[in-house]
Design goal:
The protein has helices spanning 15-21, 44-47, 87-90, 92-98, 116-121, 124-128, 143-153, 162-171, 193-203, 279-285, and strands spanning 6-10, 30-34, 42-43, 65-70, 80-84, 106-109, 132-133, 157-160, 183-186, 207-212, 218-221, 235-236, 242-245, 257-263, 274-275, 286-287, 290-298. It is built from ten helices and 17 strands.
Length: 300
């Protein structure tokens, strides 16, 4: 869909077989494998040794394309959300004030790197804030295993979907020392108030909810200094102008549900530039200097 020219894979999984079996990729010119050498693939480990240590700077702009993430497809077919290099800056607030990462601590976001959540919790904001990022690959999610890792490695900040926190509680926190945790975050789905309350009772920590999309960083959240309420996503982050809009384009008063929209008239860092190769869909969500999220909430 994106006319990718090169694919880099690890040999530690079955992904190389999937690439070889895939059809309809006329743009693909180069396949590179990291780890074990494979027939028909350029071998990263061998070829990297032959390159010079010197680097020639290639002129780039902040508005140049940096990455494309596919949306999850919950409201239609997945779309390619294209971000420029300012996307990384948009996640400073995500890491520093929402996740509250500590340069002397260890941050753990439970997410596969194929999801936009990995960019939220494993890459840009955390690196910029000089936090250590914990990486754990697993075949199957086992709640007690994650709790063991938090205790063994002294994880200080933890970010997971609400369902995972519910599963931690169901598995039982007894026998796990979670005293290293300083902040816990949730995003991606609605939080059950019972999970919020029991987690606080067991750990002394309130789950800090946040809202964003593949197209954005965190734009609404419970950030440092705020007291989160069960069921509340928090407030708009200072770097964005966010409000609720009704079907007539008017602001919604408290208690009335409306669409979450974001002012993009001054091109704030972190909001996608476009849906790649889909000008029609782009025009539907970017109208009159406003990014339409398509998600509906109400102000209490």
């Amino acid at each position: 869909a994106a006319s990718v020219k090169a694919i880099v894979c690890t040999s530690q999984t079955d992904i190389t077989n999937s690439v070889e079996k895939a059809e309809g990729m006329p743009s693909l010119e180069t396949r590179v494998v990291v780890g074990k050498a494979l027939p028909g693939w350029r071998h990263y480990d061998t070829e990297i040794a032959g390159f010079t240590d010197g680097w020639e700077r290639v002129p780039t702009k902040a508005t140049d394309t940096m990455l494309i993430y596919f949306t999850s497809g919950t409201s239609g077919n997945p779309k390619m959300a294209l971000h420029d290099h300012r996307y990384a800056l948009g996640h400073i607030m995500t890491a520093k004030h929402w996740q509250q990462v500590d340069p002397d601590g260890i941050h753990f976001t439970v997410s596969d790197t194929g999801w936009g959540k990995a960019a939220w919790g494993k890459l840009y904001g955390q690196w910029i804030m000089e936090a250590a990022v914990f990486v754990y690959e697993y075949e199957r999610f086992i709640p007690s295993d994650i709790l063991d890792l938090v205790e063994e490695y002294g994880i200080t900040t933890l970010c997971c979907p609400p369902t995972m926190f519910r599963l931690y509680l169901n598995a039982g926190l007894e026998g796990h020392d979670l005293s290293s945790l300083k902040n816990c975050n949730i995003a991606g789905e609605a939080l059950n108030p019972d999970t919020f309350k029991v987690w606080e009772e067991k750990t002394g920590l309130r789950l800090m909810e946040g809202f964003g999309q593949t197209e954005t960083p965190v734009v609404i959240g419970n950030i440092k200094g705020m007291v989160p309420k069960p069921g509340s996503m928090g407030k708009p982050l200072p770097q964005y102008k966010v409000w609720l809009m009704d079907e007539d384009g008017e602001d919604c008063p408290p208690g009335v549900q409306g669409e979450i929209v974001i002012d993009i008239s001054d091109a704030p860092a972190g909001i996608m530039r476009e849906y790649y190769r889909d000008p029609q869909k782009t025009a539907e969500v970017h109208k009159d200097g406003i990014h339409h999220t398509g998600d509906r909430k109400s102000v209490v």
